[in-house]
Protein backbone atom coordinates (compact mmCIF):
# COMPACT_ATOMS: atom_id res chain seq x y z
CA UNK A 1 0.00 0.00 0.00
CA UNK A 2 1.17 3.58 -0.77
CA UNK A 3 -0.01 6.31 1.57
CA UNK A 4 1.05 9.87 0.78
CA UNK A 5 1.31 12.48 3.55
CA UNK A 6 -1.30 14.66 1.84
CA UNK A 7 -3.50 14.03 -1.18
CA UNK A 8 -4.63 17.30 -2.75
CA UNK A 9 -5.82 15.47 -5.85
CA UNK A 10 -8.53 13.58 -3.96
CA UNK A 11 -10.00 16.86 -2.71
CA UNK A 12 -9.70 18.44 -6.16
CA UNK A 13 -11.61 15.54 -7.76
CA UNK A 14 -14.51 16.04 -5.37
CA UNK A 15 -14.74 19.78 -6.19
CA UNK A 16 -13.71 19.77 -9.85
CA UNK A 17 -16.93 21.09 -11.40
CA UNK A 18 -17.52 23.75 -8.77
CA UNK A 19 -13.91 24.93 -9.04
CA UNK A 20 -14.01 25.06 -12.84
CA UNK A 21 -17.12 27.22 -12.76
CA UNK A 22 -15.78 29.55 -10.06
CA UNK A 23 -12.45 29.99 -11.82
CA UNK A 24 -14.09 30.67 -15.16
CA UNK A 25 -16.33 33.33 -13.62
CA UNK A 26 -13.34 34.91 -11.89
CA UNK A 27 -11.18 34.95 -15.01
CA UNK A 28 -13.94 36.31 -17.21
CA UNK A 29 -14.40 39.24 -14.81
CA UNK A 30 -10.82 40.27 -15.72
CA UNK A 31 -10.23 41.75 -12.29
CA UNK A 32 -7.30 39.71 -11.08
CA UNK A 33 -6.55 41.66 -7.93
CA UNK A 34 -9.44 42.48 -5.62
CA UNK A 35 -12.97 42.38 -7.00
CA UNK A 36 -16.08 40.47 -6.05
CA UNK A 37 -14.56 37.14 -5.00
CA UNK A 38 -12.03 38.81 -2.71
CA UNK A 39 -14.55 40.98 -0.87
CA UNK A 40 -17.07 38.15 -0.66
CA UNK A 41 -14.46 35.75 0.72
CA UNK A 42 -13.43 38.29 3.35
CA UNK A 43 -17.08 38.62 4.43
CA UNK A 44 -17.62 34.88 4.46
CA UNK A 45 -14.48 34.11 6.45
CA UNK A 46 -15.15 36.88 9.00
CA UNK A 47 -18.72 35.56 9.36
CA UNK A 48 -17.48 32.00 9.87
CA UNK A 49 -15.52 33.22 12.90
CA UNK A 50 -18.14 35.72 14.05
CA UNK A 51 -15.71 38.63 13.69
CA UNK A 52 -16.23 42.03 12.05
CA UNK A 53 -13.16 42.34 9.84
CA UNK A 54 -11.13 40.11 7.56
CA UNK A 55 -8.27 41.57 5.52
CA UNK A 56 -7.00 39.18 2.88
CA UNK A 57 -3.27 39.29 2.12
CA UNK A 58 -0.61 37.47 0.12
CA UNK A 59 0.40 34.79 2.65
CA UNK A 60 0.19 33.72 6.28
CA UNK A 61 3.65 35.13 6.90
CA UNK A 62 2.57 38.51 5.52
CA UNK A 63 -0.54 38.31 7.70
CA UNK A 64 1.60 37.89 10.82
CA UNK A 65 3.96 40.70 9.84
CA UNK A 66 1.12 43.11 9.00
CA UNK A 67 -0.77 42.31 12.23
CA UNK A 68 2.32 42.87 14.39
CA UNK A 69 3.52 45.94 12.56
CA UNK A 70 0.11 47.68 12.45
CA UNK A 71 -0.43 46.89 16.15
CA UNK A 72 2.63 49.05 16.81
CA UNK A 73 5.33 46.41 17.35
CA UNK A 74 8.64 48.08 16.50
CA UNK A 75 12.35 48.25 17.10
CA UNK A 76 13.19 48.10 20.81
CA UNK A 77 10.22 45.83 21.56
CA UNK A 78 10.34 42.19 22.55
CA UNK A 79 7.63 39.76 21.49
CA UNK A 80 7.24 36.40 23.19
CA UNK A 81 6.70 33.49 20.81
CA UNK A 82 6.82 29.68 21.21
CA UNK A 83 10.18 27.96 20.73
CA UNK A 84 8.44 25.13 18.91
CA UNK A 85 6.60 26.35 15.79
CA UNK A 86 7.13 27.18 12.14
CA UNK A 87 9.70 29.96 11.58
CA UNK A 88 7.12 32.43 10.15
CA UNK A 89 6.00 33.23 13.69
CA UNK A 90 9.39 34.58 14.75
CA UNK A 91 10.36 35.94 11.31
CA UNK A 92 7.38 38.29 11.42
CA UNK A 93 8.60 39.71 14.73
CA UNK A 94 12.12 40.33 13.40
CA UNK A 95 10.67 41.90 10.23
CA UNK A 96 9.12 44.58 12.49
CA UNK A 97 12.58 45.30 13.91
CA UNK A 98 11.56 43.74 17.23
CA UNK A 99 13.20 40.84 19.05
CA UNK A 100 11.61 37.38 19.20
CA UNK A 101 11.85 36.02 22.74
CA UNK A 102 11.26 32.27 22.77
CA UNK A 103 9.21 30.50 25.43
CA UNK A 104 9.03 26.73 25.91
CA UNK A 105 5.88 24.74 25.19
CA UNK A 106 3.62 22.46 27.19
CA UNK A 107 4.69 18.79 27.02
CA UNK A 108 1.09 17.59 26.58
CA UNK A 109 -0.36 19.93 23.94
CA UNK A 110 2.91 21.30 22.48
CA UNK A 111 1.48 24.84 22.61
CA UNK A 112 3.16 27.78 24.37
CA UNK A 113 2.98 27.57 28.15
CA UNK A 114 1.54 30.48 30.16
CA UNK A 115 4.07 29.93 32.96
CA UNK A 116 6.94 30.04 30.46
CA UNK A 117 5.55 33.25 28.94
CA UNK A 118 5.50 34.88 32.36
CA UNK A 119 9.14 33.94 33.00
CA UNK A 120 10.26 35.72 29.82
CA UNK A 121 8.55 39.07 30.42
CA UNK A 122 10.86 42.10 30.69
CA UNK A 123 10.32 45.88 30.63
CA UNK A 124 10.66 45.71 26.84
CA UNK A 125 7.99 43.07 26.27
CA UNK A 126 5.27 44.50 24.07
CA UNK A 127 3.29 41.52 22.87
CA UNK A 128 2.76 37.78 22.99
CA UNK A 129 2.29 35.92 19.71
CA UNK A 130 0.71 32.58 20.48
CA UNK A 131 0.45 29.69 18.00
CA UNK A 132 -2.37 27.14 18.07
CA UNK A 133 0.04 24.42 17.03
CA UNK A 134 -1.10 21.44 14.95
CA UNK A 135 -4.74 22.58 15.34
CA UNK A 136 -4.98 22.64 19.14
CA UNK A 137 -5.71 25.88 20.98
CA UNK A 138 -3.07 27.23 23.31
CA UNK A 139 -4.16 27.50 26.97
CA UNK A 140 -6.07 30.72 26.35
CA UNK A 141 -7.58 31.44 29.77
CA UNK A 142 -4.17 31.26 31.48
CA UNK A 143 -2.49 33.22 28.66
CA UNK A 144 -5.20 35.89 28.65
CA UNK A 145 -4.63 36.33 32.39
CA UNK A 146 -0.87 36.79 31.95
CA UNK A 147 -1.39 39.31 29.11
CA UNK A 148 -3.98 41.22 31.10
CA UNK A 149 -1.86 41.32 34.26
CA UNK A 150 1.22 42.62 32.41
CA UNK A 151 -0.71 44.77 29.89
CA UNK A 152 0.65 42.89 26.89
CA UNK A 153 -0.83 42.82 23.44
CA UNK A 154 -2.11 39.35 22.51
CA UNK A 155 -1.87 38.21 18.88
CA UNK A 156 -2.64 34.79 17.41
CA UNK A 157 -1.00 32.69 14.71
CA UNK A 158 -3.92 30.60 13.43
CA UNK A 159 -2.14 29.17 10.38
CA UNK A 160 -2.83 25.67 11.70
CA UNK A 161 -6.16 26.39 13.40
CA UNK A 162 -9.00 27.04 10.95
CA UNK A 163 -12.26 26.78 12.95
CA UNK A 164 -10.43 25.27 15.93
CA UNK A 165 -12.39 25.91 19.14
CA UNK A 166 -11.68 26.17 22.83
CA UNK A 167 -14.35 26.78 25.48
CA UNK A 168 -16.86 27.54 22.74
CA UNK A 169 -14.70 30.22 21.10
CA UNK A 170 -12.88 30.03 17.79
CA UNK A 171 -9.10 30.34 17.58
CA UNK A 172 -8.59 33.82 16.16
CA UNK A 173 -11.18 35.46 18.43
CA UNK A 174 -9.02 35.67 21.58
CA UNK A 175 -6.39 38.23 20.61
CA UNK A 176 -6.39 41.77 19.25
CA UNK A 177 -5.85 40.26 15.79
CA UNK A 178 -5.17 36.82 14.32
CA UNK A 179 -3.30 35.68 11.23
CA UNK A 180 -4.41 32.78 9.03
CA UNK A 181 -2.54 31.04 6.23
CA UNK A 182 -4.23 29.43 3.24
CA UNK A 183 -1.07 27.68 2.04
CA UNK A 184 -2.26 24.79 -0.19
CA UNK A 185 -1.90 22.04 2.43
CA UNK A 186 -3.52 23.91 5.37
CA UNK A 187 -6.99 22.75 6.48
CA UNK A 188 -8.33 25.51 4.23
CA UNK A 189 -5.88 25.83 1.35
CA UNK A 190 -5.72 27.96 -1.80
CA UNK A 191 -3.93 26.98 -5.03
CA UNK A 192 -0.95 29.17 -4.24
CA UNK A 193 0.12 31.51 -1.44
CA UNK A 194 -2.69 33.23 0.44
CA UNK A 195 -3.53 34.47 3.93
CA UNK A 196 -5.65 36.85 5.97
CA UNK A 197 -5.89 38.75 9.22
CA UNK A 198 -9.07 38.94 11.30
CA UNK A 199 -9.97 41.39 14.05
CA UNK A 200 -12.92 43.09 15.72
CA UNK A 201 -10.98 46.36 16.02
CA UNK A 202 -12.10 48.68 13.19
CA UNK A 203 -9.18 51.12 13.48
CA UNK A 204 -6.64 48.31 13.42
CA UNK A 205 -8.48 46.75 10.44
CA UNK A 206 -8.18 50.03 8.51
CA UNK A 207 -4.49 50.37 9.34
CA UNK A 208 -3.80 46.79 8.24
CA UNK A 209 -5.80 47.12 5.02
CA UNK A 210 -4.00 50.37 4.22
CA UNK A 211 -0.54 49.00 4.99
CA UNK A 212 -1.11 45.84 2.91
CA UNK A 213 -1.99 47.93 -0.16
CA UNK A 214 0.76 50.54 -0.55
CA UNK A 215 -0.65 52.77 2.19
CA UNK A 216 -3.93 53.40 0.41
CA UNK A 217 -7.46 52.82 1.62
CA UNK A 218 -8.96 54.87 -1.23
CA UNK A 219 -7.15 54.71 -4.53
CA UNK A 220 -4.31 57.22 -4.48
CA UNK A 221 -4.65 58.48 -0.88
CA UNK A 222 -1.25 57.03 0.31
CA UNK A 223 -1.35 58.35 3.87
CA UNK A 224 1.70 56.21 4.61
CA UNK A 225 4.06 53.89 2.81
CA UNK A 226 2.95 50.29 2.85
CA UNK A 227 3.69 47.07 1.03
CA UNK A 228 2.05 45.01 -1.69
CA UNK A 229 0.36 42.04 -0.05
CA UNK A 230 -2.99 41.16 -1.58
CA UNK A 231 -5.05 38.06 -2.21
CA UNK A 232 -5.38 37.14 -5.89
CA UNK A 233 -8.95 37.00 -7.19
CA UNK A 234 -8.36 33.44 -8.44
CA UNK A 235 -7.23 32.32 -4.98
CA UNK A 236 -10.29 33.94 -3.43
CA UNK A 237 -12.50 32.05 -5.90
CA UNK A 238 -10.87 28.74 -4.87
CA UNK A 239 -11.21 29.57 -1.16
CA UNK A 240 -14.90 30.45 -1.59
CA UNK A 241 -15.57 27.04 -3.12
CA UNK A 242 -13.72 25.31 -0.29
CA UNK A 243 -14.87 27.24 2.79
CA UNK A 244 -18.34 25.60 2.99
CA UNK A 245 -16.62 22.19 3.23
CA UNK A 246 -14.13 23.12 5.96
CA UNK A 247 -16.25 21.99 8.90
CA UNK A 248 -16.81 18.57 7.28
CA UNK A 249 -13.11 18.18 6.48
CA UNK A 250 -12.19 19.06 10.05
CA UNK A 251 -14.64 16.41 11.34
CA UNK A 252 -13.11 13.82 9.03
CA UNK A 253 -9.67 14.63 10.43
CA UNK A 254 -11.01 14.30 13.99
CA UNK A 255 -12.51 10.89 13.10
CA UNK A 256 -9.14 9.77 11.77
CA UNK A 257 -7.45 10.96 14.96
CA UNK A 258 -9.90 8.92 17.02
CA UNK A 259 -9.14 5.79 15.04
CA UNK A 260 -5.37 6.38 15.29
CA UNK A 261 -5.67 6.87 19.05
CA UNK A 262 -7.62 3.65 19.53
CA UNK A 263 -5.34 1.59 17.29
CA UNK A 264 -2.16 2.95 18.91
CA UNK A 265 -3.49 2.76 22.48
CA UNK A 266 -1.32 0.89 24.93
CA UNK A 267 1.92 1.28 22.97
CA UNK A 268 4.36 2.64 25.57
CA UNK A 269 6.69 3.92 22.84
CA UNK A 270 4.08 6.21 21.27
CA UNK A 271 2.24 9.19 22.73
CA UNK A 272 -0.84 10.20 20.73
CA UNK A 273 -2.04 13.84 20.81
CA UNK A 274 -3.75 15.05 24.00
CA UNK A 275 -6.81 17.27 23.88
CA UNK A 276 -7.37 19.73 26.72
CA UNK A 277 -10.85 19.72 28.29
CA UNK A 278 -13.15 22.12 26.43
CA UNK A 279 -10.99 22.13 23.29
CA UNK A 280 -11.73 20.66 19.87
CA UNK A 281 -8.56 19.68 18.02
CA UNK A 282 -8.76 20.22 14.24
CA UNK A 283 -5.67 18.11 13.46
CA UNK A 284 -3.98 20.18 10.80
CA UNK A 285 -1.16 17.87 11.81
CA UNK A 286 -1.50 14.52 13.57
CA UNK A 287 1.82 14.28 15.37
CA UNK A 288 2.79 11.44 17.65
CA UNK A 289 5.71 11.43 20.08
CA UNK A 290 7.67 8.34 19.22
CA UNK A 291 10.80 6.73 20.59
CA UNK A 292 13.41 5.78 17.94
CA UNK A 293 11.59 8.31 15.75
CA UNK A 294 14.03 8.37 12.83
CA UNK A 295 14.18 4.57 12.59
CA UNK A 296 10.38 4.38 12.73
CA UNK A 297 10.12 6.98 9.98
CA UNK A 298 12.51 4.99 7.78
CA UNK A 299 10.57 1.76 8.43
CA UNK A 300 7.27 3.43 7.50
CA UNK A 301 8.86 4.86 4.34
CA UNK A 302 10.01 1.37 3.33
CA UNK A 303 6.41 0.28 3.73
CA UNK A 304 5.02 3.02 1.48
CA UNK A 305 3.91 5.38 4.25
CA UNK A 306 4.99 8.99 3.93
CA UNK A 307 5.49 11.00 7.15
CA UNK A 308 6.87 14.45 7.92
CA UNK A 309 8.66 15.93 10.93
CA UNK A 310 7.14 19.10 12.36
CA UNK A 311 9.72 20.30 13.34
CA UNK A 312 13.21 18.81 13.02
CA UNK A 313 14.65 21.72 15.01
CA UNK A 314 13.03 24.01 17.55
CA UNK A 315 13.51 27.64 16.49
CA UNK A 316 16.14 28.68 19.08
CA UNK A 317 18.50 25.96 17.84
CA UNK A 318 18.35 26.96 14.15
CA UNK A 319 21.37 28.66 12.56
CA UNK A 320 19.18 31.74 12.04
CA UNK A 321 18.97 32.23 15.84
CA UNK A 322 22.49 31.17 16.76
CA UNK A 323 23.25 34.74 17.79
CA UNK A 324 20.84 34.36 20.72
CA UNK A 325 23.17 31.65 22.11
CA UNK A 326 20.47 29.38 23.45
CA UNK A 327 21.18 25.89 24.75
CA UNK A 328 19.00 22.81 25.25
CA UNK A 329 18.61 23.75 28.92
CA UNK A 330 16.69 26.92 27.99
CA UNK A 331 13.91 24.96 26.28
CA UNK A 332 13.94 21.38 27.58
CA UNK A 333 10.51 20.43 26.23
CA UNK A 334 11.11 21.80 22.72
CA UNK A 335 14.53 20.16 22.70
CA UNK A 336 12.94 16.79 23.43
CA UNK A 337 10.10 17.27 20.93
CA UNK A 338 12.40 17.97 18.00
CA UNK A 339 13.79 14.44 18.43
CA UNK A 340 10.46 12.69 18.97
CA UNK A 341 7.64 14.25 16.94
CA UNK A 342 6.43 12.43 13.85
CA UNK A 343 3.46 13.55 11.75
CA UNK A 344 1.27 10.82 10.25
CA UNK A 345 -1.07 11.29 7.26
CA UNK A 346 -4.43 12.72 8.42
CA UNK A 347 -5.97 14.32 5.32
CA UNK A 348 -9.78 14.10 5.16
CA UNK A 349 -9.96 11.60 2.27
CA UNK A 350 -7.79 9.04 4.08
CA UNK A 351 -9.62 5.72 4.61
CA UNK A 352 -9.97 3.64 7.78
CA UNK A 353 -8.13 0.85 6.00
CA UNK A 354 -5.16 3.10 5.34
CA UNK A 355 -5.08 4.20 8.97
CA UNK A 356 -5.22 0.57 10.14
CA UNK A 357 -2.31 -0.21 7.85
CA UNK A 358 -0.23 2.66 9.28
CA UNK A 359 -0.93 1.58 12.86
CA UNK A 360 -0.22 -2.05 12.08
CA UNK A 361 3.18 -1.08 10.67
CA UNK A 362 3.94 1.07 13.71
CA UNK A 363 3.14 -1.87 16.01
CA UNK A 364 5.24 -4.24 13.92
CA UNK A 365 8.17 -1.85 14.05
CA UNK A 366 8.21 -1.81 17.84
CA UNK A 367 7.96 -5.61 18.04
CA UNK A 368 11.15 -5.99 16.05
C1 LIG B 1 1.99 27.78 7.51
C2 LIG B 1 2.34 28.57 8.70
C3 LIG B 1 2.60 29.95 8.63
C4 LIG B 1 2.85 30.70 7.36
O1 LIG B 1 2.00 30.64 6.37
P1 LIG B 1 2.43 30.95 4.85
O2 LIG B 1 1.09 31.16 4.22
O3 LIG B 1 3.14 29.76 4.35
O4 LIG B 1 3.25 32.18 4.83
C5 LIG B 1 2.78 30.65 9.81
N1 LIG B 1 2.74 30.04 10.99
C6 LIG B 1 2.52 28.71 11.11
C7 LIG B 1 2.47 28.12 12.47
C8 LIG B 1 2.32 27.93 9.96
O5 LIG B 1 2.12 26.62 10.10
Characterization of this structure:
The longest helix has 22 residues. It is globular, with a radius of gyration of 21 Å. The protein has twelve helices and 13 strands. Helix 1 packs across helix 8 and helix 9 packs parallel to helix 12. The two termini are 20 Å apart. Helix content is 40%, strand content 15%. A hairpin with a 2-residue loop joins strand 6 and strand 7. With 368 residues, the protein is α/β, with parallel strands linked by helices. The strands form three sheets. A seven-stranded mixed beta sheet has the order 1-9-8-5-4-2-3, sandwiched between helices. A three-stranded antiparallel beta sheet has the order 7-6-11, with no helix packed on it. Pyridoxal-5'-phosphate (PLP) binds next to helix 3 and helix 4.
Amino acid sequence: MKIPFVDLKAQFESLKDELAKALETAVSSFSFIGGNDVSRFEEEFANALGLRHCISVGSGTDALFIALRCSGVQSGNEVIVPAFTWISSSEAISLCGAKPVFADVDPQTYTISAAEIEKRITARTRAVLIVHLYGHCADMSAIENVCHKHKLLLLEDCAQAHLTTCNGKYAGTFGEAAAFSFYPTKNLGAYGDAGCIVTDNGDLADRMRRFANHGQLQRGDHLIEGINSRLDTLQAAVLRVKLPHLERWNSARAQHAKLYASLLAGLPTVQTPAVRRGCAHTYHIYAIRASRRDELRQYLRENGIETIIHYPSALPFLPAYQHLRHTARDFPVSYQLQAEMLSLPVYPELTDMQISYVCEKIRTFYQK
